[in-house]
Design goal:
Blueprint (H helix, E strand, L loop, with lengths): L3 E4 L10 H16 L6 H16 L7 H13 L7 H9 L13 H12 L3 E4 L7 H10 L9 E2 L12 H11 L6 E5 L2 H4 L8 E5 L16 E2 L1 H12 L1
Parallel strand pairs: 1-2, 1-4, 2-3, 4-5, 5-6
Length: 236
């Protein structure tokens, strides 16, 4: 029976068009950092390169270390002095990106209902952001960080989706059995890979991402009513 439910964030608990969100986020970041001497085009290319480096992380360092090593390789060893400015961006300007995201009250309702069923909730969002940015997006979804027993961020993670080791790392940290966990996500390639470890999976289809056009009939899938029904069947 399921005891712990892993939830993706972007496109799952927080409805969004990922391309629209990234465009808004990058535009806000470029505007914030330009007065500090960061040319927008070079900065955004660097952020993308840092993101790809984190996705390819082999587990030898945290994603945070991988990102900043890449950043310093482009802007110089003193570039991290501006980390406080990035932190301020995520606390303030980044909040404007909420305007391009959707909101579904059923997301928070579902998380709280599964806790009433005796299950723990884990926020298994791809750990490409610092904690301040992830906590903000949690609140945009109508939830609080306290709703989760664990939240993956770039400073506490050594892998990224779709690497199965991303899920394995969380399972090991929390001393969980894969067979008693369910991964809920909207990205076929990044979220359903959790099934390779023996986890149950559920594909939330409201904002589905299916880049490889896979047959989704192999996965339990649907919207929030179907998800809650599935959870109840596997927890009672």
């Amino acid at each position: 029976m399921i005891s712990t439910i892993f939830f993706d964030l972007d496109g799952t608990l927080l409805p969004m068009d990922q391309d629209v969100f990234v465009k808004s986020y990058f535009g806000l970041l470029a505007k914030k950092m330009a007065p500090l001497g960061y040319a927008p085009e070079k900065l955004l290319k660097t952020i993308w390169a840092g993101t790809q480096a984190m996705v390819k992380n082999d587990g030898s360092r945290t994603n945070e270390a991988v990102f900043w090593d890449l950043f310093e390789s482009i802007y110089g060893k003193d570039a991290r002095k501006d980390e406080a400015a990035f932190e301020q961006f995520y606390r303030e300007d980044f909040q404007q990106a909420q305007g391009v995201c959707g909101f579904d009250p059923r997301a928070a309702q579902t998380v709280r209902q599964i806790r009433e069923l005796g299950c723990a909730a884990v926020l298994a969002t791809n750990p490409l952001f610092p904690p301040v940015a992830t906590r903000s997006r949690i609140r945009w979804a109508g939830l609080t960080p306290e709703d989760f027993v664990y939240i993956s961020t770039y400073d506490n993670s050594r892998y990224c989706k779709p690497n199965p080791d991303y899920y394995r790392e969380i399972l090991d940290k929390l001393e969980l059995s894969a067979e008693r966990c369910l991964m809920v996500g909207n990205d076929v390639g990044e979220d359903m890979v959790a099934g390779e470890l023996g986890m149950e999976v559920f594909l939330l289809t409201d904002c589905i991402i299916n880049r490889d056009k896979r047959d989704i009939s192999r996965y339990p899938h649907g919207s929030y009513p179907e998800l809650l029904e599935y959870i109840r069947k596997h927890t009672v």
